Predict the 3D structure of the following.
Amino acid sequence: MLSGNAFAAPKNTVQSCTVTECHAGIEDTSENHKLACTVCHAGNPGTRDKDAAHKDMLGGRNPSDPSVWDKSCGTCHQYQHDRVNTTLMYTNTGIIKNAQQAWDDYKGKHYSTGGSEGFDAEGNRVALPKVTELEELSGELYRKFCSSCHVGFDKLIGYRAHHSSGCAACHFSHSVDGAYAGGDKTILGKKPYPEKHVINPLPNDDVCLTCHNRSGRIALSYRGEYDGNNSLVPTNGGIPGPELMDGIRSIKHMQADIHKEFGMECIDCHTSRDMMGDGYFYENMYQQLETACEDCHGTPEALPRTGKITKESDSPLRESQYYRVKANYGDEMVLTSKGRMYSNVKKEGGKFILYTKREGKRLEIKTVTNTADHAVYGHERMECYTCHSKTVIQCYGCHTTYDKSQTMMDWVKMEETKGLFSEKEDFRSFFPFPMGINQKGRIAPVTPGCQTFLTVLDEKGKAEIKEHVFNYKGGKKFKFAPFYGHNTGKKAITCRKCHSDLMFAGFGQGLVSITKKNIDSSYMCDQCDKPLDSLYTMKSGKMSVTSDIVRDTSRVFTPAEISRIFDANRCIICHDKGDKKIYGKKIDYEKILADSVHKPLLAD
């Protein structure tokens, strides 16, 4: 067992780094990390010459960079290091695969950002080649666009979007402009550095925002912020604002997620295994995540599952050491969807309680077990957030140009290479939203992912390819993906709204012609004569599928499922609440509507 000063430096070692002309005033990273600078950074502490002192430092300014993290953070934190090596936040295997599928490049081979080896959850050995070996255009798109938000790399550009690489991506916070604001006058105000030389054991929501402000915008939606279709207004003194986001986007405000309104941060729902992984490789995020609404709120049939802390190796004891309210032996902890203990959700006195990790706020959780609203026949296949989502961000029409005459930074190769990607979208929406069947076989919101129109310019600026729509499963189809928008509310979407608005069923705007027996949309694609916002259209009474849902085992609704959605309106027109007496079992419409109560009503 290491003594308390096992990593202490010889006399004058720390002082040589922190003398007046060097890093005097720099913060200790934490109470547990009052170590010699060289324990983490390496380098030469025996000289005051800057170049000589900084020679052979691990990772330059960041010793937690994945290129050296096994020699720095991993020497003390091997358990966490081994998990992070396999997490999708580092490998990005799912994003790479989805980019391949969207660009019709997927051949069944999986990649990792940095190349990885290990095991999947079934115990099979996995070796993922580095994404630099993916020579198709989708691989280059990932390396030049998507990977800049990846925890394997420093993202040192963008307002409110700076983060370091490796462990520091989450555990060191950056200011909005990426400048250091601590006590070390040598680097004060300089970029790119964390705001202070201080470890944040519990990352706050601003850390999550640095990456999750793009694509699905889940960090923005959770906070009640929206960046779409606003043309850089509202303005502040004639300039965009008053709030901005990376990419010079103005922020509008909407209602925040109900969990946010109760004072919960991202880390209060998500476990460390959601973010840092559990040591196994996964292809898709839904396989890695263990957090589900039912974990805390129960199901219509059963209350949340629990397990007691009985061993010193039980994870809540270790993980809660920095929480305001710590877990203790004998605590009855709520279990995740994978049967593991949450570290901050307990059963106390017959009630289910969540304690926020940073502040220790005590929140009593309401369960849905044996409630009438959650006993509607057919809704057992619904994801909770399908009914309770207030917004689901949808970006329609992604027009991507690849210009061979220009260069762009390849963030994985870390060099400028030929080929510049640029994007623009047709329009953005957030409500209502289409639905489909997700990877778990449940009814969930779906969002465009991605509706790519590719233009390729040669080295003289001439279009080799113009507005190309990629094939999917043998035809030109727009792609949607199951999605949880992270903007839930207490009140569910009404029965009448969901069952009567054609957008929810997948018909987009739902422009109906009774005489022609058509259902269509005005958001039409000029290249393929298909609607952007629809999964299906109807012409002369015949329905056709125009888009598809691209995640594994997910799919669009069948005609029979769509019919059942609209059949429910026979009852909803009068009974628009989830009454268990009416909707608690399968309805025989022909029989019910022909009985002595309903038949006279229909006759009138």
Observations:
- The chain has 25 helices and 27 strands.
- The mean pLDDT is 91.
